[in-house]
Amino acid sequence: MATKNLAPIEKMRPVRYQPHVLSSALNMFGGTTTMKWSTLFAIMGMVDAALGMTIFFTFGRKIIFQFFIFNAVSFTAALLMIVVFTLWLWFAGHPQRLDNTIGRMLFNKRVRKFIDKFSIFDDRVTEAEVQRITGFVGYDPESGLYRTLVNKAKDGFWAIRGHPYKGNWCYVVTAKPDYTMTDHQVIIENMYASDKTFKAGHYKNTVMITGNTATKVLQEMKDKLKKPNIDKFSEQALYSILEMYRGQESTKEPIYLILFGLPFTLRKETALQNMRDMRAGYEASINVKGIKTELITDPYILSLLIKGALTCKMFVRGDLLGKGGKFGN
Amino acid sequence: MGIKERLISRAKRRAIKKAAKEHDELEGLLDREISYLMAIEDVDSPTKGPDAGLFTIFNQEVHAQALLIGVKEKYNPMLKEYSENYDLATIDRVVNLCSVDEANVILSHNVIGLKESTKHTLLKAAQNTVSRVNAQIRKRRVKPVNAAVNKNEEKKLDAHTNVTLNGMDSYALFAMVCVVLSPDKNIVKDTITKLKDVLLEGGIRSIVPRFAQWSAIQLALPINVVPIKFFQPVNGRTIASMSPLRDTLSAFSGKGPVWFDELDTLRPCQICATLEDPEGVFILGPPGSGKTTLMCKVAASARALGHNVAMIEPKEETKKGTDFRNFVREYGGAIAIFGPDGINPAPLIIPYDRTMMGTRYATYRKAKDNWIDTVEAIVKTWVGKLSERQEGFLVATLIGLYISRHILKPNGDPDNVELWDQPGALDWPSIHDWRLYMKEEVKRKESDYFNDQSVLSLYHRMVKAMEGGTYWWWANSKEHMQFDNKLKLYDVSGVPDSLQSAIMIQIFGALNTAYYSNDEVEDRPQTYIIIDEISSIIQAEESIPYIDKCMSKGRAPGVSGVLGTQHPVMKENFVNMVNANISNLIIMNNLTPQNIHLYCDPFNIDEKYRLDLLQQGSGYGTCFRNGHATKFVVRLDEKLDKALLASQRAAGSDGIESLTADERGFAVEEAVRPIYDKEHFFVTDWLVSKPRGSYPGYEYSNPENPLSRGGKYAAYIREDQVKKIEGTRADGEKYQDLVGPESVKHFVIVCIITGWMRMHGFQDVVIHHNNGPDITWRGGCLEYEMPGTHNSIEAWNGKLKRAREAGFKHIIFTGIGSVCTEMMEKEGTEVTAYVYPQGEKYLRAKLESIWKENLEREGRVLSPISPSPQEVEA
User: Fold this and answer.
1) Those residues with Cβ within 8 angstroms of residue A252's Cβ, 6 or more apart along the chain or in another chain
2) 3-class SS at B345?
3) How far apart are CA B73 and CA B588, in angstroms?
């Protein structure tokens, strides 16, 4: 039974437990930025060469021996040469610098177009722009199904044409893992077995949001303290323990949500069927593996969770969807 | 395609477009509000300054920063997304780290399912790229470093293609984002740095994307916006291993005593025993590593929650160590001392407590059966192995003895059960009586064992139980075992080693019997049996099944065992029992390279946890539970700290009374104790111990000090003292708080003045709530006036008159400046000469002059802090 000098788990791990990203196989020192940079470098070179030729032909061979500053054409050409070189150096002197410049330009454009910066109370922000923030455009209160905007692949993808997920329906469930205290490899195998039932063209977003519920650990003690028949020694001990954890009540405990994105369809019935398939397939599979899920049908709860998470004002008391649960601040 | 087909196709496209438009319009009208409901109100992305593109600000106050996980650094492509050091447990640490104070964290795990054909396309594209670079290498068109990277990548890609083709893995598009949000930008930065460090340590690279923060945050939210630029094809098992659906501490929260605090987050962890699973715990650690402290913490927490705690102490502690005795005294427990000087429960008295076990006949029968087995094990442990005939003789004589004493009926069923738990009501036998009965049984002609010398040897082997024998104190005892106290210490340290295991079985058997679960008794408290130094007890083979019984699931419901030892070399059957039955294994730190294998090998502890166990420091350790490890620290609360300190300072002595706090866990100066006891009021300056930040159950107020200029007190009144009635306060608030008939402010200031007077040795200082002056003392009285109450001249003059009639030498009217001015200057007032406005200049000066006058008259010096005279050596 005793095992001495166990090798580290990494050494023993079979190849399937080694992480692998397919895009790593690309030529690591090539890439679009380098190409852009090279092109710009060539253009800058050509412009500078043209300007140099202009100066040369304006002065002829005299340029080598004397510099005639009062010639307007040659002076402008010389100045432009310096400006072009400086600008190139400033904005695209290095692939990283070029990338930064392009990123900043696109970012400023998105800010101007109310994509990266907006306020829904701003009159200039249109309804279409508000819809674009979360993508939600419709919902079905009975089934908890949301209709959303379709994702567009502006950036493209290196091996797939367009966007690999173009769904326009989704639903959200809460999740509660109960299998945590088992071995990592068992967890991974369980999750992987469930993932096999996850269909192509679907999207899954597992979100963990930290919220304040560690109070429940101390709440048991507080409740005990309120009981009338509590004896002296229990009371002393409870006060002492509560005092030690004072200030720690805001310790976070995570809330798990899973968003399931369904494939594109115009018919709500088809979307509902897709949802039923997902619930009976992947969701049932993870339920068997110890992750309890519960559907959120009320969009108000979801909006409170999203806004609460983004504004740091979220706390959840009691069961998330159970009776008496309270949300928001 | 012909013209006809083209036309049909075009018509179809138009029809779909039209239907989509109609659908959109209809739904849009119905659900227009959903987009507004879901949208965050305000998003700001700084475009200038050093933070441009690095932060997103929500609602003008919350700073957010997103971190992309498992992403290659673009400008340093040598560093891969996941390195060779990739640790499967990294995500656990990330999840733990997300529980930071003052910040919200969103961790998002995104997967897009791919078609089989797409997966193949991706693999093929990757293989083609590798082949292309290989061709470039052959033609010497690439740099040597790129060639090396490509070679490594080719090897890895081949291995993974193999696995994928064999159906053991697959690929999907994957992205992971972590967003940290806080109003404080520095907290966000710090948390992101910590997360990056933890990820890097676990072999995962991460970057903060510049100028793409909002789309990264969108990806992290539970919405259907999917920015594809963050996704990359990753193998399925890595995706599964990165899932954040693993709350590492969920098994440590629920209802039960707090065991320890998780090391990274200091979250309190509970191990929650249930009737189905007693959640036994085995604690292993070298001397001084904090085992006993951990056990005391569990006992304190369990005791606080109303559970039963039975502690067994087999060792004699030195003065420097932590022992259970002083802990139990401090927490109001009872101590049962075994040994020649103690009160020893008789081994043949069947332990029964009807309050815990009920009065069902079947329960008595089960208790009897259990106890006969226990007695058999006690004797075996004591005298050694028995032959089959001796075993039969032992049980037969025991049953016969019980029948002769009317404890059992002739058919073996319990008799006189209503008298079982009443001491003295039945003639319970002792071991000595049993021995004599054995001898008679051998002499009896009708007996199966007539003149059988082999069974009579049992009688001789129990010779130490004879009168005058070394175990006479135990063998002749007729004491019942008591279960009345919730915290009980069974001290067996004074028992001879040869008998220690037998007595341990006696205690175990009694606890298992007494706390046996019964439907008749509702809300049975959980019982924790805590045994230090189990290795000294398990020397006897027979004891192991008894320990096993209290540790294994379902065999002794409601009883949880906590075993501790410092000796790592244990018997194999004990180790097997621990491995099979105990859910929680705790190994304390402070191990050394020389002994670590002794502690870890029997339980197959993985190498990766061993480095932590080598670290030094008392109270640190790792809890292993179902193959998962949680690093923890044992932190002590104030009371426990005191109890253990007392234990360390005065081990073996009773000198801990001075440390005993009052019933609320804190104490005030003796001089002001009557105010605290009667009025349930105190200010922090009166406390003997260091003030705390809060006092649950007490209402806080921050009154001005009436005896100084500008000082303030932190004052507390017990919540139930304050009566809240509706009305309008002078300052316009809706509610009026009263203590008795007075307002809280009045009450607080009167109490503070009284406290000052008592601390300065004024005699017979009493507060009056209903009639008469607010404060009286020997020779004087004081009236405190609040603005807006009893401020008529008649009322003041009447009070003065009554005070004079009562014969008070010193009469003081006081209050805030404006009230005092009114009292002095209002027409017709007679109290002018007695008004001393609150503060240092008038009221304090007056009270100090009275104090000095008292001192001069009594001719003694009083300490301003302690009014009681000090003892002086002769």
Assistant:
1) A210, A211, A212, A213, A214, B98, B99, B100, B101, B104, B105
2) strand
3) 40
Q: Compute CA A285 distance to the chain's CA centroid, rounded to the nearest angstrom.
A: 26
Query: Which residue is closest to B111 within chain A, CA to CA?
Result: A204
Name the residue among A216, A242, A303 with its Cβ closest to that of B696. Answer: A242
| pLDDT one-digit tens code per residue, A177-229 | 876 555 677 888 888 999 999 999 999 999 998 755 444 456 667 777 777 77
Are B258 and A217 an interchain contact pair (Cβ–Cβ within 8 Å)?
A: yes
Average pLDDT over residues B404-417: 86
Q: What is the mean pLDDT of residues A282-304?
A: 87
Question: What ipTM is given for this predicted complex?
Answer: 0.83
Q: How close does chain A come to B339, measured CA to CA in Å?
A: 28
Q: What is the pTM of this model?
A: 0.60
Closest residue in B to A292 (Cα) is B245
Q: For residue B213, list chain A residues with Cβ-Cβ distance below 8 A.
A: 116
Structure tokens at A291: 């992750």
Q: What is the DSSP letter of B41?
A: S
Q: What Cα–Cα distance (Å) separates residue B217 from each residue in A42, A315, B56, B98? A: 37, 20, 9, 16
Between CA B532 and CA B296 the distance in angstroms is: 10
Spatial neighbors of A197 by CB under 8 A, at least 6 apart, are A281, A282, A285
The dihedrals phi and psi of B177, each to the nearest 5 degrees, come to -130, 145
Backbone φ, ψ for residue B203 (5° rounding):
85, 20
CB contact under 8 A, B82 and A19: yes
| Of A221, A214, A253, the residue nearest A238 (C-alpha) | A221
List Cα–Cα distances, B201 to A14, A19, A179, in angstroms.
21, 15, 25
pLDDT of residue B863: 38
Listed residue (B831, B279, B285) closest to B554, CA to CA? B279
- pLDDT tens by residue, B595-637: 888 888 888 887 778 888 888 878 899 988 766 678 888 888 8
- pLDDT tens, residue by residue, A131-181: 889 999 888 888 889 999 998 876 555 556 678 898 999 999 988 887 655
Q: Where are the beta strands (DSSP E) in chain A?
A: 118-119, 136-140, 145-148, 169-177, 203-212, 252-262, 291-295
Using a CB-CB distance cutoff of 8 angstroms, which residues of chain A are in contact with residue B238? 19-20
